[in-house]
Specification:
alpha/beta; 35% helix; Aconitase, domain 4; four-stranded antiparallel β-sheet; globular; 8 strands; 205 residues; four-stranded parallel β-sheet; 9 helices
């Protein structure tokens, strides 16, 4: 998993509530495509005129606008990533170059899937998000600094955000749950050895 420290780049405003995982990546794309092929189909019903990239882009959609075509952060609305529990929604965001989503609230499973894939979900109130939108409307770069727990945008004082300390440490180190478990390998092995002595009957020969 990629470590997350500071994410710098354009921040695209997608200020609509209840952006669900089916809008992020359609279910039929999941059955047709493999990981690594999903990026062009992120938000396709909003990005394209018809069925997929071949139908041509909608010029009025934010990710197709010159200022935000290289966006690495999305500024979202409430309940971002709600709906079905498809990890592929996070994969599609990453493959399209998105490393961070800032929103007032998230779907619980989507939030956890972000943590397992090195995509930073930042919870921030709508008023603060609107200030960032105004400051970066022309594509000016926004810094999301996980180490300092602050967001910096042109003309604004740094905006603080909160993040669970254990989750923050895992993202800074690029550790998913398996990596975090391996950190305790010595203690786990010691427990198993002691338990095998105490309860040999519980182990296969």
């Amino acid at each position: 998993m990629k470590a997350v420290t500071t994410i710098t780049g354009p921040a695209a405003p997608l200020l609509r509530d209840n952006v669900d995982t089916d809008l992020l990546i359609r279910i039929e794309r999941i059955s047709q495509l493999k990981r690594g092929q999903l990026g062009p189909y992120l938000l396709e019903t909003l990005r394209y005129r018809g069925d997929g990239p071949a139908s041509g882009p909608r010029e009025d959609f934010v990710l197709n606008q010159p200022a935000f075509v290289d966006a690495c952060t999305i500024l979202g609305g409430k309940n971002f990533g709600c709906g079905s529990s498809r990890e592929m929604a996070v994969w599609a965001l990453e493959e399209a170059g998105i490393r961070c989503v800032i929103a007032p609230s998230f779907g619980d499973i989507f939030f956890n899937n972000c943590l397992q894939n090195g995509l930073l979900p930042v919870q921030l109130d709508a008023i603060a998000i609107e200030r960032i939108v105004a400051a970066s409307r022309d594509g000016a770069h926004v810094d999301v600094d996980l180490r300092a727990l602050e967001i910096r945008a042109p003309g604004l004082d740094p905006i603080r955000f909160e993040f669970d300390e254990a989750q923050r440490e895992a993202l800074l180190e690029g550790f998913d749950e398996i990596d975090q478990t391996r950190r305790f390998a010595e203690q786990i092995n010691r427990f198993r050895a002691d338990d095998r002595k105490a309860r040999g009957w519980a182990y296969l020969a």
